[in-house]
Amino acid sequence: MRALLFERNLPRYAVAKVAGSLAAGLGARVGPLSLTETDDPDLPGPGWVRVRPRLAGICGSDLATVDGKSSRYFEPLVSFPFVPGHEVVGELANGQRVVLEPVLGCEARGIDPPCRGCAEGRRDRCERIAFGDLEPGLQTGYCSDTGGGWSTGLVAHESQLHPVPEGMSDEAAVMVEPAACAVHGVFGATEAADLTGATVLVLGAGTLGLCTIASLRAHANPGTVVAVAKYPEQRRLATSLGADMVVEPAEARRAMRRLTGSLRVGGGLSGGADVVVDCVGTESSLADDLAVVRPGGLVCLLGMPAVVSIDMTPLWQRQITLRGSYAYGRETAGQRTFDLAFGLVADARLERLVSATYPLDRYREAIDHAANAGRRGAVKVAFDLRGEKRR
What is the DSSP string of 194-244? Predict the structure, then answer.
């Protein structure tokens, strides 16, 4: 099969890290990612099937990996070589289209009895992602045994697959996984705080931030949603998806001060938003979170962070709750996150966030486009495998 393969090559990874620090996406040109011909992955056991990807999105975590910016925390949770790509709509041998739920929990790993998280239907809390019948890999796209979406073939456990409704386009279906991340983040926030009537600040308006705005309006009943967006197209989409106010990053603190009637204290506010949803996950965004959330408020971290250096004193003195949000599972209403995500994609027409698609052999262009999507007026960039031949 044809695949973009990411190999364990420390010298090239180091070069990618330097290149990625110079220009986002440049790691794809010099790092350990290459287009190759490789064997199809073996079926690991009963309940596993072959999936031919149709569209596979490029995620922020993929870009961090390609540019050498991913955290060393992941080293024991990944196996090499792996094929990236976890935002996947594909098809089975019988032609059925499916969306992949990529977390590799106990059921996929053949572990019985399952861990506590998986027994509760919360694969996002699986305790066995480095064990069982598979090589380590927290998700498809980071596991050497499964393959990934940036290829013409992968294997998946039946428990990971969700049928695509008839009439839903591939472009809509490829948005289900990122939408599920946003849905899970919003439900996680509602577990920690009452969002009814709340002032919520969404920091970042890429794919995850825009899906979060839509999910807040669909599931949380906030009072005012403020979005922080850098680029014109992001601002237009944020408004369209339900933000009451959209501001540029430099105006975020001033806007929150006026909206909440807060006073300025040093670089922060005396009050602020009830909830901040951080869809960026950088050192500067975390500092902004702590500056604009009110005492006793909630910061929900959806964007994947790496190693950061930040003064946590405001978290302590203002008694702020910091909550991480990873992946998906079952929500407080007992519904599967992916079921809710299918509904959100359809209702909010999230297929409009798919801005461009590329064939595999143009992967350097695709990754450059994804890494600079906002500046180029784009949101989601994906690989289109529908015309790829299995060599």
Answer: --TT-EEEEE--SHHHHHHHHHHHHHT--SEEEEE-SSHHHHHHHHHTT-S
pLDDT of residue 391: 59
- Angle between helices 176-192 and 337-348 in degrees, nearest 10: 110
CA 204, 208, 212, 215: dihedral to nearest 10 degrees? 160
Residue in this structure with the two tokens 């309940």, named with its chain if needed: 47
Nearest to 384, CA basis, from 365, 359, 364: 359
Going from the C-alpha of 148 to that of each of 36, 57, 101, 189, the distances in angstroms are 13, 11, 12, 30
Residue 297 CA to its chain's centroid (Å): 24
Share of the chain above pLDDT 70, in %: 99
- Given a contact cutoff of 8 angstroms between Cβ atoms, the answer to whether 380 and 353 are in contact is yes
Does residue 198 contact residue 274 with C-beta atoms inside 8 Å? yes
- Count Cα neighbours of 169 within 13 Å in the Cβ-side half-sphere: 11
pLDDT band at 319 (very low <50, low <70, confident <90, very high): very high
Phi, psi dihedrals of residue 363, rounded to the nearest 5°: -65, -30
| pLDDT average, residue stretch 260-271 | 96
Q: What mean pLDDT, rounded, does the chain reach?
A: 96
Q: Tokens for 116?
A: 């506590």
**Which residues are 155's β-sheet partners?**
50
Instruction: Please state, as a whole number, how many other Cβ atoms lie within 10 Å of the Cβ of residue 12.
Output: 17
Task: Using a cut of 0.85, tell me whether the model's pTM lies above it.
Answer: yes
348-385 pLDDT, tens digit per residue, is 999 999 999 999 999 999 999 999 999 999 999 999 99
First to last CA, the chain: 6
